Write a sequence for this structure.
């Protein structure tokens, strides 16, 4: 019955998160949407449920972007690999990731959802890495170690105030991380 409200509430939550960080409230959403809190609570029984939904929505959007990259026959395998490792959907580019490090302390169960999504769903990426190895576009390396390095780096942005300290945007950091992992730091 309230499914049609999910998207509106979600977009309001993203907007308010960008303005207030994790301090936004269900009252804020109610005011922003001119919707009763009762209606909002019928859709999301608590803020934690809304944040969990937002995490899954975001990661599902990332996976959809990754699939679009994989399906693009105009890209080489190496371009696809770089693309999926740095995939950030258009709807997520406007999200201010600088406050996400507070998620671990304030909403540990939601942070666990983030960790799980970062650490799972690697099948297509690993398959693409193996294809790139076979065709010789990348050297042979331990894929499990690569996954740990990449995942740990991404998780670190969600546990520490690195983005604020460096003044960098998450999208820029993600591209630089992928560039360093793919090309190293040696000047050629």
């Amino acid at each position: 019955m309230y499914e049609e409200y999910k998207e509106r509430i979600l977009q309001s939550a993203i907007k308010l998160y960008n303005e207030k960080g994790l301090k936004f409230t269900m009252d804020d959403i109610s005011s922003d949407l001119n919707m009763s809190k009762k209606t909002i609570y019928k859709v999301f029984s608590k803020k934690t449920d809304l944040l969990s939904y937002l995490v899954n929505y975001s990661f599902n959007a990332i996976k959809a972007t990754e699939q679009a990259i994989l399906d693009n026959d105009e890209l080489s395998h190496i371009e696809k690999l770089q693309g999926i490792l740095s995939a950030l959907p258009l709807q997520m580019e406007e999200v201010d990731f600088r406050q996400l490090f507070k998620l671990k302390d304030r909403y540990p169960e939601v942070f666990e959802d983030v960790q799980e999504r970062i650490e799972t769903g690697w099948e297509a990426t690993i398959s693409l890495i193996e294809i790139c190895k076979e065709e010789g576009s990348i050297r042979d390396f331990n894929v499990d170690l690569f996954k740990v390095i990449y995942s740990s780096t991404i998780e670190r942005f969600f546990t520490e105030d690195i983005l604020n300290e460096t003044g960098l945007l998450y999208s820029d950091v993600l591209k630089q991380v992928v560039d360093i992992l793919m090309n190293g730091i040696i000047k050629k």
